[in-house]
């Protein structure tokens, strides 16, 4: 039979009687004398009852016409019941009356959907757009991005993640030689106003001079440079960091000490930063929405001021812009340079088709070389940093009086020569902006100043007015993915990915772990990577707390035994701690941001590639020995340090790759030359695979528990005792709960020792990794334990100091890498 007939037969036979088994009286009476007549009558009664139940229920269609054979059915019976046999007319009449009564009831009228023409009207479109961004806000460039990008909902915004077309290398070329444009208007801008001394006194509680320049830096305080700093909770340095922010002071006004400060923070940092600022500054929340930051990593064509402005300040600003035209690269300018301008509406000079903007070499050669060097060394004068963008009334006026697209098109249509520039430019077409220079790559000795660019700060509502003209000038557009790649190529940490000690970073790692775990569970078990066999304890997260605590314990145990060699001590301690979990109380791990300590670590890591430092500084840095390492770890034993790893041979570092310590035999492989690929990790045994199988078999046999043999339970007990189980517990409830939480290919919680689980000792993990097009090799960024790193440096020979191993979570192959600590 066909599938349709089988389905129809099953539908008809679902209510038919089946074999009815009536329990015997001996089973009910507990073994008394059986009564054959009574049991026979009871069994027959059960069968009769099942048959009556099947007869009363309809098997197929409940319509009365289904009772007739097919050759007697007529289409006219539906409206003329006299066509039916007399025995079925009454039932058909009752069903007909019931259907008429049901049709007479007034049904709820469904709202008629509007036509597409009505839905596309401007007012209806705005209502629909406002409804769709109730939960996640839209940027001004959202419609443009939604047509060309894969959109993601993050941090309360709807953002473009990556383009729908392949453009990875094209975006890299744009970052290197032309221009890559990104919309960063989802960043929160917080404004603080007050007396300068009071503001500095309050903000000094959130920062520390040991980490670098703060809000009170001279260049930043004057308003000529933009600054960046890592904020902490009030008086809690070096613990409890909040996250990094960038800030900009308004240049001083003559005759007043009242200052204005803008602080830009990531949206995940806002809910932690605002309460702290309100407590320290004793102020209310002040978020400034009208400033739209846009990243432009290339030269910007600036519109000159009108010739009617002949004041001395205007002439100095014009001279400064002429000096800017003589700069060959934005990397030549001092980092954080601020330039305030008032430009024309770029829609007025919008080209008819896309044209790639190129620098004018002739204009650059005409600039005096001395003035150019003066600009590179001293930067922009303070009065050139002033802008009307600081005034809220001016911002509101510019936003409210913006020329609409309809008015602008009508003005262009009235021009005598089509395509020519509007003259004179209307007053509504003057826009105050701020240009803030962003430095490029400042670490390492290759590709210096790579990725330098500008932040373009605009009034609210002018985002698309500048966006489309920039696109018509040949710029590339990047999303969140390219933002991460830009910071990775520059060798800097990216927030909140690379801040494990901040609350926002902890929340991000938890969300990321749940997303990766859900993606892992969606794959069939046979297609999943068995991370247990690869020796990877936590492929979706990095247990930084456990890593720092284990290295602290190892350091203390090594200090107590000074008679033995350091290598033997470390190997013995690792072997003894293979199946031991950390039992000491939890303590918060911190990231080392002290500049003095970082310079010391960078000097011990030979050779150093930090910018502005010689490759070997024997006289400046004290020699590294056991006593120097002990004194350094007295204050930084529970700290992590940000490092950059460069592969010495082929390979591509991946996300959450393990950073390990090479053995003496591994270092001998380096003498073979650059062709040496590295050692291999022996495959691990999956002890949880058999338990998962027994669990599945047990679930199948739960319906018939009496059929389970007694020997099966004994075998399971023996096998469970023979296999090492780090999750065993004396409580049977906890053991059953841990068995139910097992996932094929993943270690359950709590994890065993993360440092000694593999054949090579683990120092840390990678948070960003890929093949770097700027360096021409695989590069990785991540964190390692300070205690483990110093222990490795002390035990390594001088010629191999700073050489570590890198292994991806899905591979058993180790790769040699060179570690660099950048300051």
UniProtKB/TrEMBL annotation:
It comes from the Eukaryota. Residues 40-121, 128-194 form the Pop1 N-terminal domain. Residues 453-544 form the POPLD domain. Residues 1-14, 104-123, 686-700 have a biased composition (Basic residues). GO terms for biological process: tRNA 5'-leader removal. Keywords: Nucleus, tRNA processing. Residues 726-740 have a biased composition (Low complexity). InterPro entries: Pop1, POP1_C, Pop1_N, POPLD_dom. One of its GO terms (cellular component) is ribonuclease MRP complex. Residues 16-32, 716-725 have a biased composition (Polar residues). The keyword Metal-binding does not apply. Residues 1-39, 96-123, 306-329, 672-740 are annotated as: Disordered. Residues 639-823 form the POP1 C-terminal domain. It is found in: Nucleus. It holds the Pfam family POP1_N. PANTHER family: RIBONUCLEASES P/MRP PROTEIN SUBUNIT POP1 (PTHR22731), RIBONUCLEASES P_MRP PROTEIN SUBUNIT POP1 (PTHR22731:SF3). This is Ribonucleases P/MRP protein subunit POP1.
